[in-house]
Amino acid sequence: MNRPSMTYILAVATLVVAGLSPLGSTSAQAALVNGNIAVYLTDGATLLGYVSTSYGSEVDSFTYSSDQSSALQVQFDSAESTFAIKLLNPPASNIYFGAVEPPAREPLAPGSYGAVLLTGTSLVAQDTYTTAASNDTQFTNAVESTIWSLSSDNLKGQWTNSDGSTFPNITYYNPAADNLGLSGDLAAFNDHFADENAYEVILRFTPVPEPASWSLLAFGGMLAVCRRRRSSGSRFSGQILALVMATVLLSSTVAQAANPLPDGYISETGMDDSPATLVPAGYYASDDHTQAIPASPGSYIPSAGAQGAISQIPAPVGAYVSGSAATSFTLASVGHYVDTTGATSQTQAPLGAFVATSGASNFTLASPGHYVDTLGASSQTQAPLGTYVPGSGASATTPAAPGYYVPTTGATSAIQAPLGTYVPGSGASAATPAAPGYYVPTTGATSAIQAPLGTYVPGSGASAATPAAPGYYVPTTGATSAIQAPLGTYVPGSGASAATPAAPGYYVPTTGATSAVQAPHGYFVPTSGQSAPTPAPVGYYVPTTGATAALPAPVGTTAPEIASFAVRSSDPLVPRGGDVIGPIYDSFTAPNDPIALGSIAGPTSFTLDLKNISSDLGFSSLLTDLSLLSFSITGLGAGDVSVLNWNPSLVLHEGDSYLLQLQVAPSATGSFSPTLTIFTDEFAPVGMPGASYSYPIEFSAVPEPSTISMSICGGIGIGGALLRRRRLRLGKTRRSVAAKNTFAHRG
User: Each residue of 11-23: pLDDT tens digit?
Assistant: First the structure.
């Protein structure tokens, strides 16, 4: 057996040294490994490609490529059970292989379509659900990065839901979006997104050996080759060459023992030839790994092992970091806000704004009807009664102007005082009703108006004054009632401020009169403002109305009674042919003769011709005029009879006639016989009740018209009455007059 040569021994030693240097490892303190992430189907044998440095077609999330030269280079501490994966060639600014939650997604759980996308993120501590970390997508939702574990070189992700719950995650590839992600229930995900067909994949870590290890292996192989090719003539020179090469390689191996420290570690020399320390949370390792540098104000570092200033996380919007070496941020307190990232302090809400919750990124303007009059307010205040705020962002309220009021809190406008009310000053919460005697005719008034002369306002809240009614007057302003015109005065129209005294010849016998009464025959009123006429004294008479004085009785006559004047009398002073001087009533149908209308079925009209047949010509008309004073209809069926053209002031002079029109309108069937009575001043002083004359009316009301027309029936009835006509001169005699200049009198 041949003794091994020196060359062979050196080659074996070189290979042993190379074998002792672990592939992908650079530190004894941390089991850091470098490599790529391969993507396999679930059979574990079909390689799809490697996670690429180029993002997929949707939202900057990772996809894979078959070209390993474009694969991500990653590094992580395999000694940790759960770790973050650092990107050595990141596609964007964030350097960790993490996940981000898209908007409006459910938690990752069985039966839920919730999913997260794999993308570049900042470093986030394990089991931390936070929206404060950054990521390479446009999403501002939750981000997690310390989610990975290693099992037989396969990488497993574990997302923590917002409530802290965790469920097994499925790694998937979505060809429709060309991205990788994690899901709690891939079937539910595909059911919800019908146009996508994601399928499960395996992420497998593929280590890459470091250059020093490859060099040792290569030189060991070269030594072995040199031994086999040595010749007898060059044996010594081959041994010398092998010895030199081994010495160089061993020296290189020894020199490589002092390697740079992994990220997040520091030592005195910055190399692994001195004790290394993991930098704590709130600090990051300097680029030369010799010191721990505190996070700057405005930034924080939540986990230990941060490397470089880039690992500082700016405080998010709505939060700030006031000091250095912070491990977390502080949310803006109530009444404050932070509208930028990396802030070192919070800002008070300005006047007219408030912040009701913590962590606000902006303030809220006071809404219309509200105001904020202090800095740093956490709430807004309702505008009090009498004030309003028309717009947003107000720091003070506006008092209601005169003529306006605000009856509620939180108002956005003032209300105009309505009719009948006014508001004299500003800041009013109610309008004031106009007092009695005052009124307000317009809206938005600042004062009430006194009722003027001739008007009054009886109650409050009036929008107009009431004119005094006829018969009343108002002599003062601001009146609450009108005054009745006293005796002797009258008020003909409305709105009077004074009553009018009755003129001479007139009088007013009642209060509240609207007109004066003319003094009647036999009376006179010598002065104004009288409430009663003065009767003519004995020996005097008044032949006209409205007289202001009485006349002495003419020669040959007397006036024997107070308040009378040359009167008609049944005891005449001067006989004349057996008659007296006066009017004589007559009618075409004799009084007391029935007016037979027969059977009627509807309204039937007829006439009655009335006459004054006095022939005392040459005497005063006062002695011969016939006054038709009134009429009445009585008896069964009286309600069915009406007079169509009665004139209550009708006077028939000598020889005059008047055609009185009547109508019968039956209201029921049967036989009826009402009586029409006409009252005159015959045989009485002028205008005083005298003789009356009655006319029975007979008719039968039937339900249907007869074959004879109503007008013919009426004509027959009237004709029968004409046949029975006779002239009645009841108590009437004629006396001759001895001389034409002698006056008779009524008495």
Answer: 445 444 444 444 3
- Integer CA distances (angstroms), 123 to 98, 137, 312, 681, in order: 8, 15, 9, 128
Contact 671, 694 (CB under 8 A): no
The secondary structure of residue 205, as a DSSP letter, is E
- Could you tell me if 55 and 137 are in contact, meaning their C-beta atoms sit under 8 angstroms apart? no
Residue located via tokens 């029109």: 661
Q: Are 398 and 420 in contact (CB under 8 A)?
A: no
Residue type, 461: G
Both tokens assigned to 687: 């205008």
Q: Annotate 562-573 with b (16+ C-beta within 10 A) or e (fewer).
A: ebbbbbbbeebb
| Six-digit token string for 174 | 């979505």
Averaged pLDDT for residues 512-517: 96
Six-digit token string for 47: 């390689």
- Model confidence at 550: pLDDT above 60: yes
Residue 209 has a pLDDT of 56
Q: Which two tokens stand for residue 315?
A: 């405080």
pTM above 0.90, yes or no: no
Write out pLDDT tens, residues 458-480.
999 999 999 999 999 999 999 99
What lies within 8 Å, CB to CB, of 564 at 6+ separation is 522, 536, 541, 685, 745, 746, 747
Structure tokens at 249: 């390689």
pLDDT, tens digit (0-9, with 9 covering 90-100), for 566-624: 444 333 333 323 334 678 999 999 999 999 999 999 999 999 999 999 876 655 566 78
Structure tokens at 434: 């106009």
Helix 211-228 / helix 6-20 crossing angle, nearest 10 deg = 160
| Calpha distance 90→80 (Å, rounded) | 22
- Specify the DSSP element, H or E, that contains 14: helix 6-20
**CB neighbourhood size of 94 (10 A):** 24
Which has the higher per-residue pLDDT, 315 or 239?
315
User: Among candidates 210, 209, 224, 208, which has minimal Cα distance to 14?
Assistant: 224
Amino acid at 457: V
Residue 412: DSSP 8-state: S
Mean pLDDT value of segment 288-302: 95
- The rounded distance, in Å, linking the Cα atoms of 418 and 430 is 11
Q: State the pairing for strand pair 641-643/472-473.
A: unpaired
CB contact set of 179 (below 8 Å; sequence gap of 6+): 55, 56, 57, 58, 59, 61, 62, 63, 117, 118, 173
Mean pLDDT of 713-718: 45
Residue with the two structure tokens 């949370």: 281
Question: What are the residues facing 663 on neighbouring strands?
Answer: 605, 642
Tell me the C-alpha distance between 109 and 96, whole Å: 24
- Residue 317 contacts by C-beta under 8 Å, 6 or more apart in sequence? 338, 339, 340, 341, 361
Residue with tokens 């502080």: 330
How far is the CA of 635 from the CAs of 590, 592, 632, 641, 677, in angstroms?
Answer: 19, 14, 10, 11, 11
Over residues 718-745, mean pLDDT: 34
Structure letter (DSSP) for residue 228: H
Measured CA to CA, the distance from residue 32 to residue 17 in angstroms comes to: 20
The contacts of residue 187 (CB under 8 Å, 6+ apart) are none
Pick the range with the lowest mean pLDDT from 36-40, 281-285, 536-540, 705-709: 705-709
User: What CA–CA distance (Å, rounded) separates 351 from 373?
Assistant: 6
Confidence category of residue 737, pLDDT binned at 50, 70, 90: very low
